[in-house]
């Protein structure tokens, strides 16, 4: 057991040292721009959002001084305390306030300090934000609301600083759920979320806040929502993931390649509403699907993907030979390294 | 184990406040209540407290270390005999005076917060009341709209009993809060309602046809037939759409008010909720946010004594709702909710302060839910018939206001009879029309979930249409395809 843990720790460490890539060939990036980490990319997106829209507001716990992850650094100084401000420590208040602000035609960008603490706001997100437009017959909407929350394992967070709660929100029609995998993606997707006409929950992979570095254009750009991204092309198996888990999966693809397995890796990016077509097309080509996420496997979003793909590619068309595997990363801090072994197992 | 320890200490712990640094948690709150009567205006000596604590040695030290410290300090102070009361602590929020008196803030004042009223039970203006007189025109509209609400409630309630609509909620007994508060506001003020404030919409000109269309969920319903009856909403009337969820609308009013503040609007947000709603976290979150963010918002609590079958004695032990404002730094008033003139005056003053001073105001209106909770409820099972009868007859806000306009010579029996029969006739017509109108099309089930229907919803719509085609006999014919 100890040696197993040691081995996976080595894999993890090598991952951490590796510069993060967003390009299909696995090399350091192709986007012309400044080299920056993920939190700086988020910070830049927020600067642009506030700069380009006088009706944009950024608020949450400790947001005024820059936020505990530094994502809001410099915003209050630049755009004033009326537009970038601390709120009381109360998640249901933050989201409820944000809904009212957004309903008046503003871009309300709310920060929940950790995704682990988003649950007090669950009712406001599920019963209010998601249904605001529908229940009013489109007379009112809170589409200007974006809720940012750092999610996922960092290696020492235990139960309350590591959770990946995305599946809870993917069950809720009326909101969008978006998770970026890298600095470039984070900036482009966040700007799209902020400017989207629907409430969005945007989970940021906090493991990568400082770790992931890539070239990010300094200008104002957006990446499309509900469009998956094929990170690397392959012919033997399709791998689907999102957020920080993709860095692990990318390494697995490289390892599998050495053993002669050609992997196609897809970043879902938007989990709700998700891009079935891209995943379906890939699985039709490879005939195999592996889904991996950090969140618990039972009732996880992987189950939705595997059910939909089996239904589309297998049941409807009567195709054979589709194998679906569903792998998770447990969120106990001690067991973090184990998921990599699971991955190796799957590829075997 | 931990539980036992806590239990052993409850004799003394409940009387400590959070800020003193050794409050244990919600487990003790029940005891707080039962002991509170003995505690009023009493202070304990350090010696007494010391003995009791020393009696509970098996407590986890991390909870009690500060406690022992504070007692030691207390004893030292006594020895030096230095009990000057003029020393202060400079603390964020202002100077805090030190005191050598070990005394607790009482759980409540001896006297309850008084209730502002203008008209007495017989509709006579109280002497020396400093109220703003309403014009005849405004008074007549207030009365007209209260009677409209009362009549609409009676007829829609009947329609539900006959099975013509699925559900209904009356505002019986709360007509004055509804209409008179609306009268004191401007149309630019945003209404963020619960479900028992249809009178605000009446005041703003929402027509009986519009009410009927929503309750029958026909194609003229602005909510496109998606919600239960009485979940009204109208952009044109600056009235957010009602949700069934209790209290979840309250923080929205704060966000909206903040936007109005940023836009330097000459208007405020006004949110309504019940006594039951004040137990929800959203109420507390909203009051606190509004105070901290200095938002021009008026919180109007209709304290009607009941939350379905739960009496306020099971809801809270504070002196009602009005006292909760001060703890959050929110200016507050208690008003007689069955006195239209009092409600009108309180809301008018609140609005002026909210907008001029950019601050939140809390209004607690005392009233009574004279009807059942909803058409799904039979309140005779949990409250005495005499109680209901007394509020309905002796305390009825509509007749009280009528006495006042009659005493002014503005109203007569003939006018009354004419108004009521005209409204009745009009309502019966609207009900028939609304009932016969076409339902919203099936496509409306899938639109407005997002601004544009995404592919998954388009796919689901296709499935539904396919199913309708294969099972046409199961599809209700009054919903256009
Ligand atoms: C969050 C939530 N919990 C429970 C309910 C069920 N419910 C509907 S109305 C109600 C009582 C509300 O009482 P109050 O706030 O005093 O308003 P009133 O009906 O007296 O106007 C309850 C418990 C609900 N709608 N929402
Ligand atoms: Mg009530």
UniProtKB/TrEMBL annotation, chain A:
Q: CDD domains per the record? A: TPP_PYR_E1-PDHc-beta_like (cd07036)
Q: Which residues form the Transketolase-like pyrimidine-binding domain?
A: 36-211
Assigned keywords, A-Z: Oxidoreductase
Instruction: Name the chemical reaction catalysed here.
Output: N(6)-[(R)-lipoyl]-L-lysyl-[protein] + 3-methyl-2-oxobutanoate + H(+) = N(6)-[(R)-S(8)-2-methylpropanoyldihydrolipoyl]-L-lysyl-[protein] + CO2
Question: GO CC annotation: what is one?
Answer: branched-chain alpha-ketoacid dehydrogenase complex
Show the GO MF annotations: branched-chain 2-oxo acid dehydrogenase activity
**Pfam families of this UniProt entry?**
Transket_pyr (PF02779), Transketolase_C (PF02780)
| Cofactors required | thiamine diphosphate
Top-level enzyme category: oxidoreductase
**What Enzyme Commission number does this protein have?**
1.2.4.4
**Gene Ontology terms describing biological process:** branched-chain amino acid catabolic process; response to nutrient
| Protein name as catalogued | 3-methyl-2-oxobutanoate dehydrogenase (2-methylpropanoyl-transferring)
| Provenance organism | Cucumis sativus (Cucumber)
Q: What is the lineage of its organism?
A: Eukaryota, Viridiplantae, Streptophyta, Embryophyta, Tracheophyta
Automatic annotation (TrEMBL), chain B:
Please list the cofactors this protein needs. thiamine diphosphate
Q: What class of enzyme is it?
A: oxidoreductase
Question: Which GO MF terms does the UniProt record name?
Answer: branched-chain 2-oxo acid dehydrogenase activity; metal ion binding
Alphabetical list of InterPro entries matching this protein: Alpha-ketoacid_DH_E1_comp, DH_E1, THDP-binding
Q: What is this protein called?
A: 3-methyl-2-oxobutanoate dehydrogenase (2-methylpropanoyl-transferring)
A Pfam family per the record? E1_dh
Family recorded in the similarity comment:
Belongs to the BCKDHA family.
Which compartments does it reside in?
Mitochondrion matrix
- What GO CC terms are in its UniProt record? branched-chain alpha-ketoacid dehydrogenase complex; mitochondrial matrix
Q: Which GO terms describe its biological process?
A: branched-chain amino acid catabolic process
């Amino acid at each position: 057991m100890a040696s197993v843990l040691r081995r996976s720790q080595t894999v993890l460490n090598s991952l951490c040292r590796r510069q993060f890539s967003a390009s299909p060939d696995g090399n350091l990036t192709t986007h012309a721009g400044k080299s920056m980490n993920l939190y700086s990319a988020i910070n830049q997106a927020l600067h642009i959002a506030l700069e380009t829209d006088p009706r944009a507001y950024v608020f949450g716990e400790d947001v005024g001084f820059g936020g505990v992850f530094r994502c809001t650094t410099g915003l209050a100084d630049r755009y004033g305390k009326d537009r970038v401000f601390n709120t009381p420590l109360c998640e249901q208040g933050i989201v409820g306030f944000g809904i009212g602000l957004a309903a008046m035609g503003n871009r309300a960008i709310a920060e929940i300090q950790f995704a682990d603490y988003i649950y007090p706001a669950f009712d406001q997100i599920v019963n209010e934000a998601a249904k605001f437009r529908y229940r009013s017959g489109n007379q009112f909407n809170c589409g200007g609301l974006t809720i940012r929350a750092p999610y996922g394992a960092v290696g020492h967070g235990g139960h309350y600083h590591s959770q990946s709660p995305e599946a809870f929100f993917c069950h809720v029609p009326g909101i969008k759920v978006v998770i970026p995998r890298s600095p470039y993606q984070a900036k482009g997707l966040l700007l799209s979320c902020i400017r989207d006409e629907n409430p969005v929950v945007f989970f940021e992979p906090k493991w990568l806040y400082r770790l992931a570095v890539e070239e990010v254009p300094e200008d104002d750009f957006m990446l499309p929502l509900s469009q998956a991204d094929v990170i690397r092309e392959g012919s033997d198996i399709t791998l689907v993931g999102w957020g920080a888990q993709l860095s692990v999966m990318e390494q697995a693809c490289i390892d599998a390649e050495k053993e002669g397995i050609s992997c196609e890796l897809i970043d879902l990016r938007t989990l709700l509403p998700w891009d079935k077509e891209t995943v379906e097309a890939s699985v039709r080509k490879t005939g195999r699907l592996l889904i991996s996420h950090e969140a618990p496997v039972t009732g996880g979003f992987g189950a939705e993907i595997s059910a939909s793909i089996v239904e589309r590619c297998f049941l409807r068309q009567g195709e054979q030979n589709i194998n679906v595997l569903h792998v998770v990363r447990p969120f106990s801090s001690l067991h973090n390294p184990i998921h990599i072994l699971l991955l190796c197992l799957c590829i075997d | 184990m931990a539980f036992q320890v806590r239990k052993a200490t409850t004799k003394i712990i409940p009387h400590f406040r959070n800020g003193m640094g050794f409050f244990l948690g919600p487990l003790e709150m029940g005891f707080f209540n039962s002991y509170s009567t003995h505690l009023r205006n009493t202070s304990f000596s350090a010696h007494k407290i010391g003995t009791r604590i020393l009696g509970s040695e098996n407590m986890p030290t991390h909870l009690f270390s500060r406690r022992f410290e504070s007692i030691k300090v207390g004893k030292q102070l006594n020895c030096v005999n230095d009990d000057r009361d003029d020393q202060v602590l400079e603390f964020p929020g202002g100077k805090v005076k030190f005191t050598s008196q070990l005394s607790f803030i009482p759980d409540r004042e001896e006297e309850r917060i008084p209730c502002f009223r203008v008209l007495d039970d017989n509709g006579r203006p109280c002497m020396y009341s400093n109220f703003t007189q309403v014009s005849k025109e405004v008074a007549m509209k207030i009365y007209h709209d209260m009677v409209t609400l009362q009549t609409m409630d009676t007829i829609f309630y009947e329609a539900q009993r006959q099975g013509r609509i699925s559900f209904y909620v009356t505002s019986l007994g709360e007509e004055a809060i509804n209409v008179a508060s609306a009268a004191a506001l401007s149309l630019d003020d945003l209404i963020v309602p619960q479900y028992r404030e249809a009178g605000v919409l009446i005041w703003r000109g929402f027509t009986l046809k519009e009410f009927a269309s929503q309750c029958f969920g026909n194609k003229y319903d602005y909510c496109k037939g998606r919600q239960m009856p009485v979940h009204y909403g109208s952009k044109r009337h600056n009235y957010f759409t009602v949700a069934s969820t209790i209290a979840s609308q309250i923080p929205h009013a704060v966000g909206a008010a903040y936007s109005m503040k940023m836009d330097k609007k000459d208007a405020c947000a006004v949110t309504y909720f019940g006594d039951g709603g004040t137990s929800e976290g959203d109420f507390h979150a909203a009051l606190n946010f509004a105070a901290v963010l200095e938002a021009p918002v008026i919180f109007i609590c209709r304290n009607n004594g009941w939350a379905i079958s739960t009496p306020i004695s099971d809801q809270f032990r504070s002196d009602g709702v009005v006292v909760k404002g001060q703890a959050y730094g929110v200016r507050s008033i208690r008003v007689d909710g069955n006195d239209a003139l009092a409600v009108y005056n309180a809301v008018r003053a609140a609005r002026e302060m909210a907008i001029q001073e950019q601050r939140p105001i809390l209004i607690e209106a005392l009233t009574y839910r004279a009807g059942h909770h909803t058409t799904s409820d039979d309140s005779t099972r949990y409250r005495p018939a005499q109680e209901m009868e007394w509020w309905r007859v002796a305390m009825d806000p509509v007749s009280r206001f009528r006495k006042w306009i009659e005493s002014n010579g503005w109203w007569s029996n003939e006018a009354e009879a004419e108004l009521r029969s005209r409204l009745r006739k009009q309502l019966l017509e609207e009900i028939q029309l609304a009932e016969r109108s076409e339902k919203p099309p099936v496509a409306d089930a899938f639109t407005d979930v997002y601004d544009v229907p995404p592919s998954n919803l388009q796919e689901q719509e296709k499935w539904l249409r396919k199913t309708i085609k294969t099972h046409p006999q199961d599809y209700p014919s009054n919903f256009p395809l």
